[in-house]
Amino acid sequence: MLLWQYLITFLLVTVQICKAEKCDEFTDLNLGHSIIGTSLKVRLLLYTRSHGTCGTLVSHTDLSAYPQFNLLNPTTFIIHGYRLTGSPPPWLGDLTQLLLVRKDMNVIVVDWNYGAANLNYLEAVKNTREVASNVTAFIQMLQEQGADLSSIHLIGVSLGAHISGFTGANLKGEIGRISALDPAGPEFKGRNPEDRLDSSDAQFVDVVHTDMDLLGFREPLGHIDYYANGGADQPGCPKTIFSGQSYFKCDHQRSVYLFLDSINATCTSRTYPCSSYKDFLDGKCLTCSQFGDAGCPIFGYDVIKWKDILLEQNQTKAYFKTNGKSPYCMTNYRMDVMIWNKDVQWGYLTVKLHGNGKEAQATINHKSLKFKKFTETELLAAFDKDIQSVEKVSVKFSTGNVLQPKRKLRILQIRLENLEPKENKAQGSLCRYDVLLEENKEVTFRPIPCEESNF
Fold this sequence. Notes:
Blueprint lengths: L2 H18 L10 H6 L6 E6 L2 E7 L17 E5 L12 H11 L3 E6 L1 H4 L4 H24 L7 E6 L1 H12 L6 E5 L22 E6 L14 E5 L16 H20 L7 E2 L3 H5 L25 H7 L2 E5 L10 E9 L5 E11 L2 E14 L5 E7 L8 E7 L9 E11 L11 E9 L4 E3 L2 E2 L6
Parallel strand pairs: 3-4, 3-5, 5-6, 6-7, 7-8, 8-10
Antiparallel strand pairs: 1-2, 1-4, 9-10, 11-14, 11-16, 12-13, 12-15, 15-18, 16-17, 17-19
């Protein structure tokens, strides 16, 4: 049965439970509360597989009234961030339910909307320490009753990422994992490690950056720091302030939706350790020999499988590209091109893969590429879909210069290699030679396996 079928069954069961009993819900405030200002109040809402959409407000000091809380199961805390308008986070229900579908666990939603909803962002920042103290006390109670700190996972969004860090530091870094989704930058940039999230706050800390140039944090904070699309502007998000509040929050919130996709596991985003996003786009970081047969680490929930080797690496910065909407994951290929033009050529490539009635496209336009006679140009080609069995390939060359005569790119050889680990590939490397590309004209050809070519 597919994951979505499990999810539907899970929801139907929990809806029936909700009808039979009272459910506690996340605090719903409005902009009026933010204007007036709110005083901190922390509520802990418990969700389990038997109560998947029906929250239970739990005591901070006594678990005896909640038989559904299983201390032998892992416990995941979801900690939200600043709430300017006071409304509940739109992603909260999906995150809770997908976690429960993936694993039998206790999910605790840390509702600190009273304290996070305030026009004065600085007041919300001041409250983060107290929220962390509250969560710390609850975890200490769980530990006293037999829970293993290694089974605790904190998922913190924005300010919630730093709350997770403070909580972990209070517990001497003994909790199992912190996943930080675009940690807040304002008021935390330039702070010492004890005043923000850092890698010593848990046994394993994974961080994703999606808005480092505005609301997020630029520098690495964990054992692995992912920079989606370079860590700043996200595809599909508004590019101008005329789009209203979406312009300010879309990039920041994308971190959560990327993480949701990784839990849903409809596809995976392979990431590549690199010194910079530019080098990644230039195809300079497409090998991951240091990770052995496992290959480059994937983004998100399942990166825990790479924990041991990432801890040995100490700190890893990894990059990946995404689509503008879900499913966000892309399929990465290494593309090698060799030309036999007499003169150096500059330009951009658009590549399409065709197979089983589907089409995937990769646009390589981050810079004008240099093609030199009998010199292999290595590129990263990130395709918007995964074509399991490639039947045809289309390539288009352009210079972007409408004032000069049309150019021709005389390709001696072209090679496409799927960068997924070998066991996940439907095909090996694909090759073609002797292809003439006239500027702005798409050429389609059938590739052949490279071992059958003349290379």
